[in-house]
Design goal:
alpha+beta, Transferase(Phosphotransferase), domain 1, eight-stranded antiparallel sheet, 11 helices, 13 strands, 26% helix, globular
Length: 506
């Protein structure tokens, strides 16, 4: 089943009733945004507050979402991490989802983060002055340093995942109050005790380090991407930066780790406006071979003279959050363990609000539509190696060139071509370790076997050797020779025809 709400449709969960809002730029359309994993809709409450409803695609509707939400809740009090506070509509707590509204299973309700993404700000070339850039960088570093101290990483820091409230930022007018942007898309967060995602995040174009093409999920996963995003924020007041930005991000993905015009411009802007110490940190990031060579975010804060407000104690649940009892399962169903949630209650109905209709009118259950086949999905799932950050490293990888060349020169039976083997994804080192660069030697074919000419012996009785079926390799060689001769003959014929025509017309 596909969740297709209309404007003003209502979802009642426990004592709270949520309403689908209208898109401000498209009249009559729900306020939603589709992504690779899910679609996010804006909901309004009876208290005129906004919430976000994240409805996952069918393949991502698993109980892992509920488990992850419980673990994420402990980080909701960190600066810029309000999106960690969420409610998961699991069939265990909401039994009505088993028979109806199956498309909402394991959907997530979370705070609506007001503002625009940094990606949209770059595309629209929204100008900020230097004080606004410093205020934004200050709040961003508050988030990054606290995450670093808690041993967590976003793993996909990029322009689309940073929300900035431009209206509030521009209305500060020199206020001393701290401005705080927010991070979203936290489903692949790295943290102690978290389960590794089935598909490792590989970063976003223009922000990803060269070593994370096959995916990365470690404590230092944000050092490069976070630094690129930070220097972009710091220098956005400099007019040439706006003029030279590349589409949805400042750097062209092909320019990463390369000497180019945008890199030189960024280095010049940092040195001119923030000093050589900040420029040196950027150079360390840009020319780094591994993630652990990139500076810590605390080093950035020190170079920029930004004071970080440390969060010593992180509660697992805000005290002001009410706990609503869960409706028990039917008597005919075997009881299942109840998982604590910050907010909960039965899903009592999904109705379309029309004249002469109220919230209490619930449509009758309809026959379930066939589920979409996996091959009809618009994305790919790749198998990745399992990784446990708490487990001691029990493997070793030899990336030396000598070893690769020794393996490439192994003997191959005569007449058999070596088949190219598809490389398997590498195993990733434990947190804190960088990923070494693999160096492989080219495969070298063995020399062709030497065939000697037969020697005639008149004293030896001559017998016809038994007939042997020619090999496929021999057949293919004969066919190839015949094709080449045919092509040559065709070319000669075309040339002869052209010469005759030239003589005729002359």
């Amino acid at each position: 089943m596909v969740f297709s709400p209309k404007v003003n449709d209502k979802l009642k969960i426990g004592p709270e009733t949520y309403t689908i809002t209208e898109h401000p730029a498209a009249k009559g359309m729900p306020y939603g945004q589709a992504g690779r994993r899910a679609t996010v809709y804006q909901l309004s409450t009876t208290r005129n507050e906004f919430r976000a409803l994240k409805v996952f695609n069918a393949i991502y509707r698993t109980d892992d979402t509920r488990i992850q939400a419980e673990k994420l809740s402990q980080y909701a009090m960190l600066p810029g991490m309000v999106a960690c506070k969420r409610i998961v509509l699991s069939p265990i707590q909401y039994p009505d989802l088993r028979n109806r509204l199956k498309s909402l299973q394991y959907s997530v309700i979370m705070p609506w983060v007001e503002g625009t993404t940094w990606q949209e700000l770059i595309m629209n070339k929204e100008h900020l002055d230097k004080n606004q850039c410093l205020a934004l960088a200050d709040g961003f570093l508050q988030t990054l340093v606290n995450m670093e101290e808690k041993g967590i990483a976003h793993c996909d820091l990029s322009g689309p995942n940073l929300i900035v409230d431009l209206q509030r930022l521009r209305s500060r007018n020199g206020s001393n109050g701290r401005f705080q942007p927010s991070l979203i898309d936290l489903e692949e967060l790295f943290a102690p005790g978290f389960n590794q995602p089935k598909k490792l995040p590989a970063g976003s174009a223009g922000y990803a380090h060269k070593t994370v093409k096959n995916g990365i999920w470690t404590i230092d996963a944000d050092r490069f991407a976070g630094a690129i995003l930070l220097v972009n924020i710091l220098t956005w007041h400099y007019k040439p930066m706006l003029e030279e930005s590349f589409g949805e991000q400042f750097f062209d993905p092909a320019e990463i780790h390369q000497s180019c015009k945008r890199q030189e411009l960024m280095s010049h802007a940092l040195k001119s406006h923030f000093g050589e110490a900040v420029q040196a940190l950027f150079d360390r990031v840009w020319w780094s071979d591994t993630l652990d060579e990139c500076p810590l975010f605390s080093e950035w804060a020190k170079a920029l003279n930004i004071e970080i407000d440390a969060i010593s104690d992180i509660p697992t649940m805000p005290e002001s959050t009410p706990v609503i009892p869960v409706t028990p399962l039917p008597q005919t169903t075997a009881p299942k363990p109840v998982v604590n949630q910050p907010i909960g209650g039965p899903v009592t109905g999904w109705v379309s609000l029309r004249p002469q209709q109220g919230v209490a009118s619930i449509p009758a259950p309809q026959a379930e539509k066939p589920k979409p086949r996996l091959d009809q999905e618009n994305f790919w799932e790749w198998d990745t190696p399992e990784f446990d950050p708490n487990q001691q490293k029990k493997y070793s990888i030899d990336y030396s060139t000598e070893n690769a060349q020794a393996k490439s020169q192994a003997q191959v039976p005569p007449g058999i071509r070596p088949q190219a083997q598809r490389p398997s994804p590498p195993r990733y080192p434990s947190p804190g370790q960088g990923i070494p660069r693999a160096q492989t030697g080219a495969y070298k074919l063995p020399p062709s076997p030497q065939r000697g000419k037969p020697v005639y012996n008149p004293n030896q009785s001559q017998q016809m050797p038994p007939y042997q079926t020619p090999s496929k390799q021999g057949i293919s060689d004969v066919a190839m020779v015949a094709i080449i001769i045919g092509v040559i003959a065709l070319v000669i014929a075309i040339i002869a025809i052209a010469i005759n025509q030239a003589r005729y017309f002359s």
